[in-house]
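G.,

No rush on this.
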Amino acid sequence: MSQPMQHRTTAAYYVQALLSFALSGTALAVGIAYLPVGGWTRAFLGIGLLYTVTSAFTLAKVIRDRHESNEIVNRVDQARLEKLLSEHDPFRVEGA
């Protein structure tokens, strides 16, 4: 009755996404560190980088949670429909 969740991504795609994230974050952090500006400007840009990364993770989590909750609701609705269809007898006469 209950089907296990299927993974839609391959291991290679996961590794590529992880490496891409790590490389982009590292490159941006190094770029901020070597900017020819004062410490306060570097600190501001660093905090901006951290805020952007954490808000991106939060957004991804919210989208994932919403998608998972919709899947659960759809599964419950599908189970109810299957139960109604299995109990329905089109040849049964009411009141007979």
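When you get to it, here's the other one too:
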Amino acid sequence: MPNRSVLVYDGDCAFCTTSVNCLVRWLRPNCAVTAWQFADLGALGVTQQRAEHELLYISPAGTVYGGAQAVAKLLLSAGGVWAWPGGLLTLPPVRWIAHGAYRLIATNRDRLPGGSPACALPAGRRPAG
């Protein structure tokens, strides 16, 4: 297990990569950030299938948060003013709404700015690049 939290995203998806790069630049979170394609997923305690499905935030203790809750943990790790919306995302009913919004965005990421048709394909079916 890492001694620092890790944020894992889909490095093959232009929308995901752009989003994570912007968040890291704005938030300066206290975690390592890596594409799942370059991570030791087994050591992090996650499967490739889950990493393809959603953004992941793994705590040093090995707790895995996915999707909107990964975003919440990222905001909380940034501290300061960002901790407020991060904390809010962990509370019902905001948590439920955030989950639905995250799934809607993740399902349609190939249609969003910066997305590409490859973003919609499972990793095994993406064109080699």
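The CA atoms of residues 24 and 33 lie 8 Å apart. The mean pLDDT is 89.

Enjoy the weekend,
O.
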